Amino acid sequence: DSHKHKDKHKEREHSHKEHKRDKERGNWKNCHSEHKSCSEKKHREKEKERLKHKEKQKEEKVDLIVPYHRKIKEENERILQEYGYCVMDNHRERIGNFRIEPPGLFRGRGDHPKMGKLKRRIRPEDIIINCSKDSVHPKAPPGTRWKEVRHDNKVTWLVSWTENIQGSIKYIMLNPSSRIKGEKDWQKYETARRLKKIVERIRAQYREDWRSKEMRIRQRAVALYFIDKLALRAGNEKDEGETADTVGCCSLRVEHIRLHPQLDGQDYVVELDFPGKDSIRYYNKVSVEKRVFKNLQLFLENKQAKDDLFDRLNTSILNKHLQELMDGLTAKVFRTYNASITLQQQLKELTSSDDNIPEKILSYNRANRAVAVLCNHQRAPPKTFEKSMHNLQTKIDEKKKQLSAAKKELKAAKADAKTLRDEKSKKAVETKKKAVQRISEQLMKLEVQATDREENKQIALGTSKLNYLDPRISVAWCKKLGVPIEKIYNKTQREKFAWAIDMTDEDFEF
DNA sequence: GGTACGACTTAGAAGTCATGGA
DNA sequence: TCCATGACTTCTAAGTCGTACC
To answer: Where is this region: Disordered (predicted)?
Structure first.
């Protein structure tokens, strides 16, 4: 009988799909009458079997895929544990970039003359190991040896090699959470704070120097003004043909600057347009003091587009001068100082203790953004920006509808309560009230998110947060305004700034 | 003073992962 | 549960700046 049934089934190929289809179309009866042996009971059994099969398939999938992922994860963890740490001064420290750079095509940023060159594979024979004499270091793979094993405790790197594109040295160093990097970071901000104490004096001096008899001093003073006011980088010379053509302050050329005695109702406007670090465009129109303007006109006299604007100046001269003004002062300290002081001022200006947490965070991001704009930290707008913005707007619209519906319900509940005057309807009013409150909070959050995202379209906040803003300012702000530090710094950032989180109280002033 | 080099910080993009809503 | 999305992590290029050497 069962054979017959099977054969019949085979013959007719009345599969589950068909059963299902028939059922959906209301043809169940039809089906039933056509296959007498295909009773409801049998069908249920089949259905059971089908589900079982599905479950089995799923299990197989899980058996294959989940362990695969787990295996990779475990393997990564093993590699991290074996190679990702070192011991320095008796402390186990995370290493930053412990994986060797694989071979491939060199891209470079901007219009790089070496774009597309082959980046060679690094071999054990290229590698220099730096460790203490008595330490255990990784052995070179069988049949190979390291280029050198040295014991230099004056430097912080663990491994180095020379790369084949520019012939420069690359290093493996410790993670930002390490003691050695943390102390250095702290020092950097302390130097910037020392600058704060004397910056007005330095400004007074460079203004004075704008009138110097000596060209080199005038150039130095105007360059320093740019570095201070516009947070430009120092601008070292670069070897032509080896790298993309980018400039900083001292290496600005005539072609990068235009002078407008008047523009858009402002006097003495300087228009700067040049490729900076990573070939990111710096474009700014800024009104300067008359004396600066006159000096710039002087520097431009009788020069061609390709000539240096500051022909009597380079970073070495500038930094020597700065060193005389303050121990440890260099051009980049101005960037750190101006970034951090801007954050502190903006936070003071934008936040109030009455704000709720999302509003406070929006203000923090805005303060952060002001710094990113100052430092010209840009990013390509995310590929999915338009779409995700649109999605967010849809969400906001929906939330608005929800809110007005909830308000209506509240009104109705209130009316009921007024007529009925019983406990139950009173309770209902409370519930509806809470719903309205909850939804309007959600709406506000979404709107804040939309504003934040729109304003952030082309601006990268990460770089300034990680490299320019004294973390103690943020920590103090969080403590003062009761914002959890996790809202500002993620796990990695908290590890990097552990020194600041530990030592800072709410009264810290940069 | 000029230059090459070495060590270290700063930079945006790409890759990966976690989460939350459909 | 699945997938889209954004957050986080990794990657490595590209700067700064001090020093050695001529």
So the answer is: 1-58
